[in-house]
Write a structure and sequence with these properties.
It is built from three helices and eight strands, in the order αααββββββββ. By secondary structure, the chain is of the alpha/beta class. It has a domain of 81 residues. The strands form two sheets. The chain has a five-stranded mixed β-sheet with strand order 1-3-5-7-8, with no helix packed on it. It starts with a helix and ends with a strand.
């Protein structure tokens, strides 16, 4: 405790007493950063940005045709292809607990709707082709626990 008080008293005496020595002046008047160190008086340093800020495809505005295609894949080695030619087409494909399935959807027209669901299937290939003016396609194909195949339209 005594050593600390002596150090504080010595520091106060050096900083208060005027002196022409470099040590006393640097202790009494600390050096402020110069303009060369701060970048010429800049307010703050900011890292340069190399990438542009773009919205992810899910948040982007719809294209001029108004087509929408969504895919949900829960499984392994599944393949989904969706092509839409026309305007205001909607296509949804869901593969749940599937393995090595292939689904293709081609919509060639306007205002076409399709929903395809594969549940617990393996190695299944499904193709949906919708020409202009066709009815909506709603298909669910499920492998049942007893090994049977349920096809619901």
């Amino acid at each position: 405790m005594r050593l600390t008080l002596k150090s504080i008293a010595a520091f106060a005496a050096i900083s208060i007493l005027p002196s022409s020595g470099a040590f006393a002046q640097s202790v009494a008047n600390p050096i402020a950063p110069t303009a060369a160190l701060t970048g010429g008086g800049a307010a703050a340093y900011t890292a340069p940005r190399t990438a542009s800020l773009k919205a992810v495809p899910e948040l982007a505005a719809a294209a001029s045709g108004g087509n929408y295609a969504s895919t949900l894949e829960i499984g392994a080695y599944n393949k989904v292809f969706q092509a839409q030619l026309g305007a205001d087409n909607v296509s949804n494909v869901g593969i749940i607990k599937g393995y090595a399935n292939s689904v293709g959807v081609l919509q060639a027209g306007n205002n076409l709707k399709s929903n395809v669901a594969l549940i617990n299937t393996q190695g299944l290939a499904v193709g949906v082709i919708q020409p202009n003016g066709s009815a909506p396609v709603n298909v669910m194909i499920a492998r049942l626990p007893n090994g049977g195949l349920l096809i619901k339209r």
